[in-house]
């Protein structure tokens, strides 16, 4: 009788011949017996030697699968295909240009099994050339079984929902069987944000551990964020899906803390994107503001007012095109005698003074 490996590692790869050998080599140095780890590489329509290089590692692991897509399907679809092929009890992700420090997965797996949690998360190390920057998971209590509900919303402060990096987590197969681990393939960017919110809202337990290190390589050519295009506007739909989920879980209650937090994330991300407006075409800027306005109209006057009160003066300036568009739409409906959807009314305090006690406390 065959037994399932303790861990499956999903590695999506497209035109990754420069890095994938380093990534897969790091998996051979994790301090785990070969039979404990299954590696699933998804060659997503590469036009270089990615598949050939990956195939050379077939005999380095207890189980190795190389899936090949004739045409690119995107990272979400590639990860989903990898998960459908995976057989491990635990599931984690490694992008083909990133790597793990020696023994990283052994620490993750030990905590995962000892604490009996739905997922284990860790810090991430941002690598740009020879420069390294530690980005810590926003939980200071380590190696302890925690409830996800206690670490999802804390006002507008940063929590685990603001930490969406898939390679920093190890997830139990039961989450996959419940459909929680599958990525939304319609999202071309920000797919991990909606995914992470869904896991935190729908699962029960997790832990954060300190490990030798998960490394994320920055500044790689072909990055989605390098050139601003329509693909990056999908962060709006990602946030919209999260808002719909929080509304569902709260029964549509106005002012639910989860909904306010999700809406705050939308505006925080919008702030970042609007700061790149010089890189956009005029049509793209118009589309960005229009889509943001459409989603924000789903908030009530009280909810929107609460959010605006938390904005720093600088953030309010960045978001002014959206806030003005909301006011114009409200005025147009009033003059036409139409009823706004979901009792929306533009906030009356768009020019309220800067509040130093509440402004600028949250990282997107």
From TrEMBL:
Pfam families: Glycos_transf_2
Glycosyltransferase 2-like domain span: 8-137
Top-level taxon in the UniProt lineage: Bacteria
Stretches for region Disordered: 328-364
Protein name: Glycosyltransferase family 2 protein
